[in-house]
């Protein structure tokens, strides 16, 4: 004991100008009867996998079990910020683990300054003091473990200061379930949804949602000393986890033997990964994330789609977990189809027929953004599989522009029939008003006339030869069928394979009529 520093309340001491930590074992009377020595060392380059995030000024929260190397990484990040990027860095050192024991800090922190914490119970006060007295641009904290420290970190983040901190845990979910640390990711609250919103999301009326903005912009799960999992947007990650979706994650690996870095980008959909579908990107010194180039093109089954932009899919009325399961079963790479919550960013919409009929706003948004809609009658995996295959077929054929002529004719027929059905069910029958349809070729107008007769209605042709179209009249030949019966007639008219004559059909450029 005479060769080391003083033991304080936390039963820890150190050796001056080293990074070693000495922990005391006491008996029931308080006398020290044993020591545990943990050897600490500064490893240059241990934070290279996070250099791009550090350089961009992102606030980082590092999560990992004890002994995985969290303190080593944030020590290197502090040195990197102070020496390489010339920032004012202040380290709040709880047990002198980052900067070492004694008044003179270890050289491993570079030009960063350090504030020692006399007692771990007052660490939150030292954090506030560091901001108020020393004008730091960056604050580095090790082992945030209490609610007071989490609140202090949140206060600091709101003052525009870059934060780099560690917390005990294995995954982001551990922080969500930890009531003392949930403030670091924005806090969790229970929210009661309205009937329409709960139906749109396909969830119960009471759900968990993020309460406010996250203290940190990025989250990093430390798997080992050479492997990290990076969540670039911590807020989006928490929202995805709470809604039952899988967040976007970058798996970054460093090969110490070959002295090179490899980064794998994948969408986390299971604990195991399919090596055939992984996209591995190799980095050479000086190359940042902005210059990533893929060595292995994305695969969709057995076919490669070179230089293909990922298909952003908006799902409505169907559980996203079911869609992800189908994508996995079809062996479609994660880069080929990405689910989105923003309909304006979507390239296609996958919706349940009954849900879509009740929401004219989705249809209006689809029309305004020229987004094709693929509809299923049920949310069974078989129906979703057919829809996803149709989507991938659109990608193969270059979507609408390079679709075969026969396919275009079939799509045009379906468009015309859907237009007539919506006009009948939403205007003609309930309001008793005539509706003019869009101009169509004569063979397609014949199909529309046949459908109109199934609803026991009449129509007349109007317009010139080049602008010939149908006007549906609110006159009934006989007894009017109710809406459900009429819709059954449409189902009989459209076959189960999506062709004229269903369980699945495609609607593109859906005409919108008054509700």
Automatic annotation (TrEMBL):
Keyword ATP-binding among UniProt keywords: yes
Every AAA+ ATPase domain range: 56-187
Protein name: AAA+ ATPase domain-containing protein
Molecular function GO labels: ATP binding
One GO CC term on file: chloroplast
InterPro entries, per database record: AAA+_ATPase, PTPase_dom, R3H_AAA, Spore_III_AA_AAA+_ATPase
Pfam families found in the cross-reference section: PTPase (PF25516), Spore_III_AA (PF19568)
Keyword annotations from UniProtKB, A to Z: ATP-binding, Nucleotide-binding
